[in-house]
Amino acid sequence: MKTLEIKQNPPSRKGKDWRSRITPLLFIGPHLFFFIIFLAYPTLNGLYISFHDWNFFTDMKFAGLQNYANILWNSDSLYYDYFWSAFRATLVFVVLSVPFLVIIPLLLAIAINTRPPGHNFFRALFYAPSLFSVVTVVLIWIWLLDTNAGLINYYLGQLGLDNIPWLTRTPWVWISLVIMTIWWTIGTNMILFLAALGEIPDHLYEAAKIDGANKLQQFFHVTLPGLRGPMAFVLIITTLASFNVMAQPQLATGGGPGYETRVLILYIYEVGFTGGNPRAGLAAAMSVILGLILLAISIIQFKIMTKEK
C-alpha cells in the first residue's frame, strides 16, 4: 500500500528577504520617528530660520549672513557686544563648575566603592538632589542664600559676621551658582563613576599591591587609566550641560548684577522670545554658533581624553 507524500513548498526567498528587511525597521522605527520629529527637523528648521529676519508675527525675510555678521564680526552691532559678553559669562561658569562636577563625584564614587558602613545610604543621599527639578533646587538655595532673610546669613549674624550678598554681588553670585549646581548634579556623575569602577578588574589592584604600590599610586596607575573612557564621557556631558546653563542664573540672579551672570542660553531666550520685537532669526543664528562651538569642544575633549599614550 503506497503512502501519499505531501510535499510542502519551502517559503520563497522573496518572502524571507522582505521579513529580514522589515524586522530591523520595526525596532528602530519608534526611535527614528522621535529623532526626526524632535531633533532632525528642529535642527534643520533652526538653521533655515537663522538666515532670515523673522519675529513670529510677520513673513520671513531672507537676510543671508546678516544675522551671523551681527554676532561674529560686526562690532558696531549691540548684538555683537551682548553675545560675546554672554559667552564670557557662560565660559566663567563652565571653568568654575566643571572641575568640581568631575572631581567631587569621582572622589565620592571611590569612597563609596570601598563599601564603608552605610554606603547604600550615602549613595542614595548624594543622588537624591538630582531627582529634583531645577526650580525646586533654585528655590531651596534662594531660601538659604538670600541676603536679608537667608538661613546662612542668619547664622553668620549669630556669629557676629556681616551678611554676604550671595545673589547680588560678584564674586559671590558665581560661588552661589556653582554651589547649587554642584549640589544638584554630582549624584548623576557619581553613579556613572561607580558603574565604571565596578568594571576595573580586582587583579590589577592585587598586582599593584604586590609591586608595592600604595593607595595614591594605585589611584594614578590603576584607577585613572581604567576610567579613561568613562571620564571622557562624563567630562563631555558635564561641559555640554554647563554651557547650556540657563535656569539657575535666570531664577536666582535674573542675570545680574547688571549682566554679569546673563549666560548665553539666557540671552538667546531674551532675544528670541521676549520684548516687543523678538528676533527669532538672530536667536537661531546664535544657537547655531553655540552648537558649533560645543561640537568643536566635545571633539577636542574626546580626542585628548581617549588619546593613547
TrEMBL record:
The keyword Transport applies. Residues 87-301 form the ABC transmembrane type-1 domain. The chain crosses the membrane at residues 21-41, 82-112, 124-144, 172-198, 219-243, 280-300. Pfam families: BPD_transp_1. InterPro entries: ABC_transporter_permease (IPR051393), MetI-like (IPR000515), MetI-like_sf (IPR035906). It is found in: Cell membrane. Its main location: membrane. Keywords: Cell membrane, Membrane, Transmembrane, Transmembrane helix, Transport. It is a multi-pass membrane protein. PANTHER family: ABC TRANSPORTER PERMEASE PROTEIN, INNER MEMBRANE ABC TRANSPORTER PERMEASE PROTEIN YCJO. Belongs to the binding-protein-dependent transport system permease family. This is Sn-glycerol-3-phosphate transport system permease protein UgpA. It comes from Sutcliffiella rhizosphaerae. The lineage of its organism: Bacteria, Bacillati, Bacillota, Bacilli, Bacillales. The gene is ugpA.
